Amino acid sequence: MTEIKYAKSPLLNMSSITLFYDDAATKLDLERAQISFIKKELEATKDLILLQELNVLHYYIPVKREALTGDASEKLRRIGNRILGQLNAMRLTEVVINSEVPDGAYSLLVAEGMALGNYQFLKYFKNKTAKKNSFSRVHIHDAKVKPTDVAELNHVVGATLLARTLINEPHSYLTATQFAKEMQKAGKEAGFNVKVMNKKEIETKKMGGLLAVNMGSLEPPTFTVMEYRHDKPKNKKPIVLVGKGVVFDTGGLSLKPTPGSMDEMKCDMSGGAAVVGAMHAIAANQLPVHVIGIVPATDNRPGMNAVCPQDIITISDGTTVEVLNTDAEGRLILADALVWAKQYKPELCIDLATLTGAAIRAIGTYASAVMGTAEQQVMDALMESGVNVWERTIQFPMWPEYGDEMKSDIADLKNLGGAYAGHISAGKFLEHFTDYPWIHIDIAGPAYSNSASDYRTKGGVGVGVRLLYDFIKRRYSN
Q: Hey, which CATH number is domain 3-145, 3.40.220.10, 3.40.50.2000, 3.10.180.10, 3.30.565.10?
């Protein structure tokens, strides 16, 4: 992981990044010729200006005198990632960020883009050292930034990269049992409690959705409950985070068609990874909140005594479900988790899942689909956080007609809706198992990428960690 360090004193003779107002170039401590060059670059509307002295690079980032919007924040992250690419290309190891701007957020955003973009998953390479990026450290020398700001950013970035690594791990390593162990490890690192239920306990709790999906697997399921409670939490009732933990999804007997449809299915636990990452960031930064994370985990395979289309299963609250498609399995394991959440009488429950291809067809890979029963101002706050961290969300309606599509002729519900708007009918299925304010986030689109996109590296993206952290922090900030 790239280390972000607080620099109390100036760091000389090191490659640097300087943020300045675009109308104040003449105030930079530079020679007349250098200032003249910067002015010409500004006239050409350059957003990144480079002055090079041998193997030392000095970058200048002009910013405008206006409120820092979500778009502007994202631009700074992306510029940080561009600089990172050049530093790695020259095999440089560190850089210092200086700022002439009276807001420390600018420096932190550039550092965030660099740290997120420098992530690599090299565990299974024989020649790890040769492939490893040279860059390893970014210093922040900015009077407006406090050491606690830097520590907080390190924890949030680290939690996002934890989620990426969990997603990138193959199922040959990350079984449901191993996933639970990784959650226990995260709890020890960050300071939150973790309780793992094994298959016998899951059977005792009659979690029929999770057990049904697991019927085709040689590996047992797990049901993990994480809890972080600050000494003086500001919320009287907990926020509950629920993450889908399907560690590999073949589709079950409703086998996914080929080619390519199964190639990325190790990422079907991205919702669970996001919950682990969010719990890690919240606990490590000791936010004054009470938060519970729930991750039901299993793989979904067509072997053994796999659940069959038209089978009827019973969720832990007694609801019967006609299984018409075994590839609509995520909602089945989430149902048991949402029922389990009822005992906490949560102030708010948020679930995250790579749930439907319909969400991708509706809005592509640039945002997540959200819906729910929480008050609109809460939904708006979540969407605002999505813009702040550039993990954008789009809200969809939850009209009763979508729920009608989930009614079965021979059971309480079926797990498959109509041919259209499947992400909404899936949400209506989940709604049945809630009796508290609730938001569903379908992250199927942005959770995993076959190519790098700026600081979002190839593979697991870690979507949801920064979104949840920002939302919860803002909700309970002073």
A: 3.40.220.10
